[in-house]
Amino acid sequence: MQGVNSTVKAKVKYKKRHPSFASRFKSNLPLLLFVIPGAIWMIFFFYIPIFANVVAFQDFHFSAGGFLESLRTSSWVGFKNFEFLFSSNAAWVITRNTLLYNLGFIVLNLIISVFFAIVMSQLRNKRLIKVYQTSMLLPYFLSWVVISYFVYAFISPNQGLINSLLTGSGGKAISWYNAPQYWPFILLFIGTWKSIGYNSILYFASAMGVDPTLYEAAEIDGANKWQQIKHVTIPALVPLMTLMTILAIGNIFRADFGLFYQVPQNSGSLYNVTSVLDTYIFNGLTSTGDIGMSSAAALYQSFVGFVLLMISNAVVRKIDPDSALF
Amino acid sequence: MRQPKKQISSVEVRSFGHKSNLFFNILLAIFAFSCLLPLIFIIIISLTSEQSLLADGYQFFPKHWSLAGYEYLATMGGQLLNALGITVLVTVFGTLVNATFTSTYAYSISRSSFKYRKFFTVFCLITMLFTPGMVANYIVMTNLLQLKDTIWALILPLAVSPFNIIVMRTFFKRQVNESIIEAARIDGAGEMRIFLKIVLPLAVPGIATISLFAALGYWNDWFNALLYIQDSHLVPLQYLLMKIQSNIEMLTQNAAQGAQYAGGMANIPQEATRMAMVVISVLPIAISYPFFQKYFVKGLTIGGVKE
User: Fold this and answer.
1) Where does the chain cross the membrane (chain B) (predicted)?
2) Contact B36/A135, CB-based, under 8 Å?
């Protein structure tokens, strides 16, 4: 008797949990409609472009008949584009520049913004902290075009402030936009300067979240300021530091286009030190018109970036699962 | 009676001693000032007379001040107003679209009763792992969607932000209790009504944050214009600045049409005018962001990517 009863119950439950497809669809329809615009956007700005990467294996030419027509009329060339790309000197230069600059940014950003964040969290004058933060955020909110004007005001060859100071003190003016030896420092400085405010506020928020009783306990135990920072503040910041670093390493193959294109004003004589993957792809796409080569570079960039993101996430998940992205 | 024991406030506990406090204050003040200095410099240049600029270059303390740059901008009208109009239009409309699409998507995937929640969450997360790349995006925009030289080329690429969707999903989950939604549904409210009347008011801080980021993105965008815009009527302000930087003569070419400037063609204060345009493009941000700053800071901490 009991057995029969329970199977009947089970059946009823089963029916309840699985309403017909139509009614299920209907009850989910409003929320589905909410998702549709975003999903369509993702299809056109992510999923189709991902597929469009096949042009890297083509000798691609635009056809007036639309995208499918262009795909159909362009001939397949296998890995030819990649062979051309990697046999050129450019591939090495742009990879080196992209990696080294981004590595520089990761290290500088991490050290300086954590330093500023800790210092700000320990300052006595709360109102001054607000003033500092507001000023430091300004560059973050400005576009690279505006920043490039800032840079130009200082290093313009004819009117720039630095050159007039140099000539004023008896030195020789420097033609900055034709002097590649200075640009690694300029770019590292500007790139870090622009983002330090944002990053240090991020770490600052985290440092202020530290339970004050921990400091009290440390003080009672006789820890001095430096020991408190080392053993209380920094460990509290480590998860955020890890997260930010994985994100940055996942993006290490992607350069900030504005910084490398606009700030050096796309000056040809600086290419050796300023050209990165993004500017190379852009120049190939727009001025030289070599779509095959730049699409190969773009796919190379996306692919390596994806692999790096996966590796860095896997490493972090092994060390500290809570800090991993996914 | 007061205890003679020294009270330690939490401020005392986490603060520097007085000497190091002063030292680090000076250090931070120097850096903070370095962030404002270039903008101050640009403002000074825009207020310098053209003769001073040509004779001494850009100086913090110019010999002759002049408003000529701004006066010329006022007569220039056309091109500048058009660019400003495009930027404002794109920023306002784009921000509306971005905030709407991002928050509705995030809201749906935050609801545990939504059957296709898993699918659409993954659908969005995948877009963050891989980038299609500039070339593929360019081909789709121009060849498939045929949007080159349309205003949509400036709006659509920034219309949805997958990262913000994930951030907002966490925000909705935390701010909006499922039981409130359930109660409203039992009372007979439809999904649309629930979203507009119950969810939105609760989510104002989050939506304000993503809207501000979107507005900033649109206002500062020049990259999409660089890729997709050739028509001079569709040039936004940032792209106009960019073009004038590499080719200052554009300013005078434009004057040939107007030719109203009192000083005559030869005396157009090119340098000062150019910097005055930079000042005008920066001013709305520089004036407003200190007031919105708390939202930006909140946005950073609004919810980790993970639950």
Assistant:
1) 21-47, 80-107, 119-139, 151-172, 194-219, 275-292
2) yes
- Backbone φ, ψ for residue A58 (5° rounding): -125, 160
CB atoms < 10 A from the CB of B230, how many? 9
HSE of A196, CA atoms in CB hemisphere, 13 A: 25
Q: In the 8-state DSSP scheme, what is residue B65? A: B
Q: Where are the domains of chain A?
A: 20-76, 88-323
Nearest C-alpha in A relative to B274: A149
At B91-147, the pLDDT tens digits run: 999 999 999 999 999 999 998 888 889 999 999 999 988 888 899 999 999 989 999
Please give the residue of chain A at the shortest CA–CA distance from B105: A35
Contact A143, B220 (CB under 8 A): yes
- Closest-CA distance, B9 to chain A, in angstroms, reads 10
pLDDT in tens, A87-104: 888 889 999 999 999 999
H-only helix segments in A18-171: 21-42, 48-52, 67-73, 80-87, 89-122, 126-141, 144-155, 161-168
Q: Two tokens at A55?
A: 């042009």
Using the structure block, give the residue that is written with the tokens 């600052």. Answer: A204
Alpha-carbon gap, residue B157 to B141, rounded angstroms: 9
Both tokens assigned to B118: 């898993």
Of A30, A145, A325, the CB nearest to B238: A145
- Cβ–Cβ below 8 Å for B15 and A143: no
Fold of the B78-228 domain: MetI-like fold (1.10.3720)
Residue A76, φ and ψ in degrees, nearest 5: -85, 135
User: In this complex, is the C-beta atom of A158 within 8 Å of any C-beta atom belonging to chain B?
Assistant: yes
Q: Which of B58, B133, B223 lies nearest to residue A299, judging by beta carbons?
A: B133
Boundaries of every domain in chain B: 15-76+247-301, 78-228
ipTM, 2 dp:
0.87
